[in-house]
Design a protein that fits this description.
alpha/beta, 4-stranded parallel β-sheet, 7 helices, binds zinc ion
Length: about 250
């Protein structure tokens, strides 16, 4: 029987059953298969992968695996200098627009708070996420690895944490987004961009006490929601500070 040797590096091991992590895996080749098919048969989404080496040479997803191959699979955010080798995608992975899968609503709001263009509905069908991601070149953030196996999704990230605040810190760290943060530039409700406005233009939206104590206002250009520096704002400011502490728990 034809066999190949496979090894997954760094956080790609998160997707493997414990017995297969950080070890060389022997795979029985029962049919003609691309390296993408072989990798995804282990449940590792192709969007997580930056580089594949077959016998020390970089190959793309369509490479047909040969008996005796030694395949090394590296994650997209592995801090390896792979620039002399072929990357799997022509465009960088860091188009900073996101589309967020169902049930990650708080993550979506937090990313908007930090100024990231983030689409979210709690009822997106997978097909629609895949379509929008492709059309708008958005990075898909999901806790559903099957979604990331959609062929048309080229940029995606499997969110490990199930706690919203930890999810934000994880994404900032793993995608190295710290230099792209612009807090309070996007509407938390609808993802619209915010603009400074004169008080009288939002006057009708204000409670009497807000009208009395605040003079500077911003407004969402899409849905019209007004924002001001009230107590809610201060909470949000503290949250931003918490997110921007550049630390993430070591995974290993
Ligand atoms: Zn809005």
């Amino acid at each position: 029987m034809a066999q190949v040797q496979l090894r997954f590096y760094e956080e790609l091991n998160d997707f493997l059953p414990p017995a297969l992590r950080k070890t060389t895996i022997t795979y029985e080749l029962t049919r003609r298969a691309s390296v993408k098919d072989v990798i995804e048969s282990f449940g590792v989404p192709h969007t997580e992968i930056e580089l594949i080496l077959a016998n020390g040479r970089s190959v793309d997803f369509s490479y047909i695996v040969q008996a005796g191959d030694r395949i090394s699979v590296y994650p997209m955010f592995e801090a390896l200098d792979i620039s002399p080798l072929i990357r799997l995608r022509e465009k960088p992975l860091r188009e900073l627009r996101f589309i967020i899968d169902a049930n990650l609503g708080r993550l979506a709001r937090y990313l908007r708070l930090l100024g990231f263009d983030t689409l979210y509905r709690n009822n997106y069908p997978d097909q629609e996420i895949a379509r929008i991601a492709q059309q708008d070149r958005r990075i898909v953030l999901t806790r559903d690895r099957a979604l990331l196996q959609h062929k048309s999704i080229t940029h995606g990230y499997f969110v490990r944490s199930d706690k919203p605040r930890e999810q934000v810190k994880e994404i900032l760290a793993r995608l190295d987004l710290y230099d792209h943060v612009h807090p309070f530039t996007r509407c938390l409700r609808c993802n619209g961009e915010m603009e400074d406005v004169e008080k009288h233009t939002v006057d009708h939206q204000l409670q009497p006490r807000t009208r009395q104590y605040y003079d500077r206002f911003r407004r969402c250009t899409a849905c019209g929601q007004a924002y001001w520096r009230g107590s809610h704002f201060e909470r949000m400011e503290r949250l931003c500070e918490e997110f921007l502490i550049k630390r993430i728990n070591d995974r290993d």
